[in-house]
Automatic annotation (TrEMBL):
GO molecular-function term, one example from the UniProt record: sequence-specific DNA binding
UniProt entry tagged with the keyword Mitochondrion: no
Natural source organism: Paraburkholderia caballeronis
Protein's name according to its UniProt entry: AraC-type DNA-binding protein
Keywords attached to this entry: DNA-binding, Repressor, Transcription, Transcription regulation
UniProt cross-references to SMART domains, sorted A to Z: HTH_ARAC
CDD domains with a match to the protein in the record: cupin_NimR-like_N
PROSITE patterns: HTH_ARAC_FAMILY_1, HTH_ARAC_FAMILY_2
Domain HTH araC/xylS-type stretches: 160-257
């Protein structure tokens, strides 16, 4: 059974403080079925990794990233093993200036520290100092840039069969023409429908799936060599190059940044 991360009234009602936050550490996996609420929610991982289902996409939330879910958007949440995470719930009337669509963001140290402070509040009226910290959270979210941490799912059953098979074995190096024959499609139809239904080419979708899996494995402390092999890269350099182009840093540096963020929050508590 999931431990509630915060009082129910601070999620379901816009009454009370316009920002309510909480942190949670849990040894077992956590899963929340599809639901929605009137407050917007910003959720992030401190340790481990969380997947969020929203808008027919799976969004991966590795450490130092967060997912913004505007009010009334249906979403589901699943952690991959033990994790520590946080959530901020923002009153609906304060969400007008915030992103109107769900997005993944890379958090700043200022945002993480402000959330950590807010997580210690009792859920009552905010004093002037708390209001200033809450406004920092809103300002940081409003100024954030969208990150590519989502993977859209196709509607067509034949395309879904391909994406399911790829997700089960990302090292599978079959070309588009081979996948089309396997699913009973012409290569042209597969190529056209992939873009129409996911907004990505087949090659882009496969690379994004590999990147998101790599982020999961990096968060779990798996070696770069093992990750490259699992994802089907011929050599480690090719994998590191892909990771750097997608994230702006290397897998090793990305892991260090995530550990540094978690350590900073623990020390400040």
């Amino acid at each position: 059974m999931n431990t509630p991360i915060i009082r129910a009234d601070l999620v379901t009602s816009s009454d009370g403080p316009f920002v309510a936050a909480a942190e949670l550490t849990q040894r077992e996996s956590r899963e929340t079925s599809l639901h929605s609420h009137p407050r917007g929610q910003l959720m992030g991982a401190l340790n481990g990794l969380v997947s969020v289902g929203v808008n027919r996409q799976q969004w991966v939330v590795p450490a130092i990233h967060a997912i913004w879910i505007p009010p009334h958007y249906e979403h589901s949440v699943r952690s991959h093993g033990p994790f520590s995470g946080w959530s901020v719930f923002i009153a609906e009337d304060r969400c007008a200036a915030l992103p109107a669509e769900p997005r993944a963001i890379r958090t700043t140290s200022l945002l993480r520290e402000a959330v950590h402070r807010a997580a210690g509040w009792p859920g009552t009226a905010l004093d002037p100092q708390q209001v200033r910290i809450a406004e920092v959270i809103l300002d940081e979210l409003a100024a954030s840039k969208a990150e590519s941490l989502g993977l859209p799912a196709p509607d067509d059953a034949r395309l879904a069969r391909i994406t399911d098979a790829l997700a089960a074995n990302l090292a599978d190096a079959r070309r588009l023409e081979e996948w089309a024959a396997w699913a009973g499609l012409s290569p042209r139809t597969l190529s056209r429908q992939f873009v129409a239904q996911t907004g990505m080419s087949f090659a882009q979708w496969r690379q994004q799936a590999r990147l998101l899996r790599a982020l999961e494995l990096v968060a779990d402390g798996v070696s770069v060599t093992a990750i490259a092999l699992e994802l089907g890269y011929d050599n480690i350099s090719a994998f590191i190059d892909m990771f750097r182009r997608a994230t702006g840093t290397t897998p090793g540096r990305y892991r260090v940044e995530g550990v540094g963020a978690r350590g900073c929050l623990r020390e400040s508590g």
